[in-house]
Amino acid sequence: MAGVITLAAVDDDRMLLDGLARWLADEPGLRLSGTYSTVDELVAGNLCVDVVLLDLVLRDGSTAVENVARLVALGLNVVVISVWPNPSQVAATFSAGARGYLTKDHDLGALASAARVVAAGGTVYSPELAFACLNDPRPERPRLSTREREVLLAYASGMTMTAAARHVGVRPETAKTYLDRVKAKYQALGRPTHTKHELASRIREDGLSPDFGDMR
């Protein structure tokens, strides 16, 4: 249907999901295409929607950063919602690619407005998100280009430089240049990046990716 923004909601509060479905049924221009209790369920359904409303804390043991990163990697726009803000978690989900954050004490009109802004390519800077970013307790993070980030994630995941270059679609010497730039940016902030293990630690600290495990 032309002009309709499609939504999916991931939350393990069935009462909230049922209420959201009833409310959106009467909201012009918005359509709830599916509700899920985990990101695994949404991904398995291969659903293509304009915006995903994602609960910050789910009971399946997944992390907020991991969930946001998975959805963003699929090309989905994510708005994180929660009962109360956790500054470090909220800031980390924003770093992982979330396009906005709202607490559940906002009214449904605010949620509808956020969905429309994000679907149009914008970002929802709610007071809670601004507070979380300003009070982010994580170390200062360098500004990485898209290519620098891609090479960093590929290489730190355990790939060789050649494999990382192939994964990103550049020549090995180009990938090495990108990685050298990443290391220099971290070093300038006093954060060591001499080994893959240290690179993986920086990634986890900055909420760039799910846990890579122990890599030496």
Automatic annotation (TrEMBL):
Name of protein: DNA-binding response regulator
Q: Pfam families of this UniProt entry?
A: Response_reg
Gene Ontology biological-process annotations? phosphorelay signal transduction system; regulation of DNA-templated transcription
The alphabetized UniProt keywords are: DNA-binding, Phosphoprotein
Renumbered to this chain, the Basic and acidic residues biased-composition regions fall at: 195-216
Q: Where is the Response regulatory domain?
A: 6-119
Tell me, what is one Gene Ontology molecular-function annotation carried by this entry? DNA binding
